[in-house]
Amino acid sequence: MQAVVLAGGKGKRLLPLTKVFPKPLVPLGEKPILDIILHQLKHFGFTRVSLAVGHMADIIQMYIGAGTRYGIEIDYSYEEMPLGTVGPLAHIKSLEKTFLVMNGDLITDFDYRRFLNYHEERGALATIATYKKPFKVELGIIHSAKDNIIVDYTEKPTYHYNVSMGIYAFDSAVLSYIERNEYLDLPELIKRLLAQRESVLSYPFEGYWLDLGNYSDYEKAVEEFDSVKGVLHLE
Question: Domains of the chain by range and CATH?
Fold first, then answer.
């Protein structure tokens, strides 16, 4: 199985840590985040990982190498300019018929093998792993009808939305929607697929997941790491 790990971001939301480390090498416990991800991919049967790198690419390659210590083959795709979250896929050689794409700054006990199996069994062109996340509004919400008549008032409500986990499964046919050297983020790609009535699925997940691209979730992950590392398949 093949995975693409997006590891080219500058990590501005994690400053000042990312002045010293590229975002995927920011430490969590005694290991960098990317080290944890690669061990997990190995555990779930992945044999090849392509790292899409840009910012501080030389440091990432120096640390990760060719994948010998992980027991997987690792190659690199270099961005000379930012290409977004899915633009780098057009530059990766020999992608499999079905492949995984994921951000290099998340921590989860997600079963990547089961996810790919679901994607293949359903015959989708793209599948997005989703997580139901609460969002609390710190203000009172006014509900108005015609003529500005207030009909209800909700004080600081919490809403739940299905958000993208930064984990995707693709059929290689998706590459026909991505132009080489084009900056392209996932939302725009999904809109292209939907406009052409392609099959795009969600994969709801209820386990442990944090997006470490923002400081509050990174601090939470640091606090919780010792209690959750036993389910992360780090060996």
Answer: 2-129+164-231 (3.90.550.10)
